Amino acid sequence: MGINDRVGTGLKGFDQIIDHLRLGDNVVWQVDSVSDYKKLADPFAGQARSDNRRLVYIRFGTHEQLFEESSGVKIYYIDSSKGFESFATEVHNLIRNEGKKVFYVFDCLTDLLKHWYSDLMIGNFFKVTCPYLYELDTVAYFAIMRNYHTYSTIAGIRETTQLLLDLYQVNNKFYIHPLKVWQRYSPTMFFPHLIAGQEAVSITASTEAAELFSSINRGEDRPDHWNIIFNRAKDVLKQPHQEQEEAKKLLMFMLIGNQSRMFDLCNRYFTLQDILLIASREVGTGFIGGKSVGMLLARKILEKEGSGRFTAYVEPHDSYYIGSDVFYTYIVQNGWWRLRTKQKAGEGYYKYAPELKDKLLRGKFPKNIQEQFIQMLEYFGQSPIIVRSSSLLEDNFGNAFAGKYESVFCVNQGTPEERYEAFEEAIRTVYASTMNEDALAYRMNRGLSERDEQMAILVQRVSGDQYGEDFFPHVAGVGNSSNLYVWDQNIDMDAGMLRLVFGLGTRAVDRTEGDYPRIVCLDNPQRLPPMNIEDQKKFSQHSVDVLSLKENMLVVKTLEDILSGNIKVDRELFASPDYQNAARLRELGYTHTKLQYVLDYKKLFARSEFHSVMKDMLALLSKVYDYPVDIEYTANFTKDNRFKINLLQCRPLQTRGLGKSVDIPELEDERACLFYSRGNFMGGNVRLPIDYVVFIKAREYLELNEQDKYSIARQVGQLNRELAGKNVMLMGPGRWGSTTPSLGVPVHFTELCNMSVICEVAAKQAGLMPELSYGSHFFQDLVEAGIFYVALFDGNKDVIFNPEKILGRENLMVELLPQSGQFSGVIHVAETKGMEIFSDIVSQTLLCI
């Protein structure tokens, strides 16, 4: 070691004891007060100044300030209330900018508990900051309050730091007791030392040492500060209401987050007892996330405001919540925080996401978290569970994050070891989904890329029952309190709607191949979307998602397979016999075929209160939220048509509103418009100019092989970027965003997010049909992006379509994308200045002219 690497503490006698500090050292002092810490920080600062060292003071605490502005020390003021990630990232960036061989004094780390509430996160901060300081040859002073932190926190700090020292004041005398001094040793180094001015006297005599330490309270292991606060709150339950309200608010800040519309609603409906019950089911510490909050709040609203209306119908829940601090701890303790910081910064946002995603899928959890996971799984036994994302920004006013993060079913069969491994894998999958391309783009497009997006997790028991070797609910889906997708002027938009499927609700939130969920207008649930009678079976649900207990995974089964078994209720509650098909088969000579069914839910709506309960439930939630709402639910029935609804999720439903009424021009010549339709649009009343139309030709598209169909989708994505800022209408056959190219163009939402209008055109001869996707994740993306939606059923009554109005214009495809000439026979891009779309909700009229 060179002489220039030796650093003084400002106490010459103590320097001799520890053989000086070294560049790279992090020095942690355990103290009884901040004023004691200042007695060590002052000589360190004085020595640094005399040695012409750059000295930086990191100020974040509420305790007395260690150095004043006039002291010649560079001071950074950092707001720790913004949370762990923002704080740690800001500290990391300033350390990087300051460069090598800078000296630092940090405020007392214990003060971070005032905003973070968790010992665990203080340890995490030290673990990500200390190694970086070491790499840059700095010397840094830290302090923690003695007997205030858990043994595990101290152990983590001891393991990471270079020096850990106790500072005691006994009978007005100061003693320093080194506990760890890295890569240095002397025969007296680890004795306590009396500090007298610049002298340090080793206490080597057993009598003196015993007398000193017997007068010091060493303390016992403490629970995490988090648990201390919640334990104190239990005692407040016996106190007056006002004290309970104050305690409740503090716990809500810890579990739910900062002041917001959702926080205010929670404060209105949750009691202190409610919050303590939630906390008792949390694994780790930190926020429980938006999805958990939304589910719990909705249930509480129904309980308190429902006047008993829903008591008999709501299935209880016994969910668990994995706190958001576990997500950060997982990253920190696996050594990925530096990569996380690089990914959050500017050009690294997309660049480093794949690497971080891969690592998130392969990490290990701390032992104490593993033990809590085991206890949770023992509670659920072999009941299937679902592991759901519940990030901080999810399901809030303004940001739904619909479908951006993963949810994973754990069928939960096998040995305890196998079930545990599957559960851990599910957690990793949800964590890794924070780096999904769609999630990254969503956060970027909505200005959220700089915000902390911690991932909490909601663990729910899967609603349903065992039917043979399968497990599923009878029905599931999503519901909206406002029905913005209407096809009939008689529909009451305020009555709400359901998107309803048989079996697991996965088919309700996604657009699935060959299947159409039932769209239910709650003012008249028997009303069907526009289609011919003979098409009712074709455009219904044919497959069912279930959990296979035998295969220990989610599987797809045919409706016939499920309905032929015992579903413990009359199958005709959900499905009607397909007598028309049976008659046709008899005509063809098939006399022994099994009777098939069509999922139409006729008897469900005629014989049960299901739709009226759902209507009232949505109306009440919307009223209390003072905002339209979007829910996910399941329902299970008994033979006497009684049922239980499991409310799985509730969030504000982002809507554009209807807009002012629009005067629609008279159409004197049918050949003058691009299209005209009655109904089948979504986006309110509009008068919207169209600058360009991107038109995918149905026949030419269908003739492509599958690889080329995917290439068309990528070309649409390039046009989406090239024409950003223009009013563009995207028209194509079948379903936009389908995962199956034979059903439509398989674009990602990020490849059409800049469009003003998307139009799905029916190509019946090829089986390409729009899907009334209201209520799906795809729909939510459209609404949040403000994209007007049209489903054009060419050939139907009240529909006019003249594609030559586009195809007769010059194709600008090659001009816009010079390298994409081979696709110009399929994609036609026309400039259409002067074209406008008019829509009117009341008359259900749509015109593009």
TrEMBL record:
Keyword set includes Magnesium: no
Primary enzyme class: transferase
Record keyword Kinase present: yes
Enzyme Commission no: 2.7.9.2
A GO term, aspect molecular function: ATP binding
Membrane-spanning parts: none
Pyruvate phosphate dikinase AMP/ATP-binding domain: residues covered: 288-670
Sorted UniProt keywords: Kinase, Pyruvate, Transferase
Listed name of the protein: Phosphoenolpyruvate synthase/pyruvate phosphate dikinase
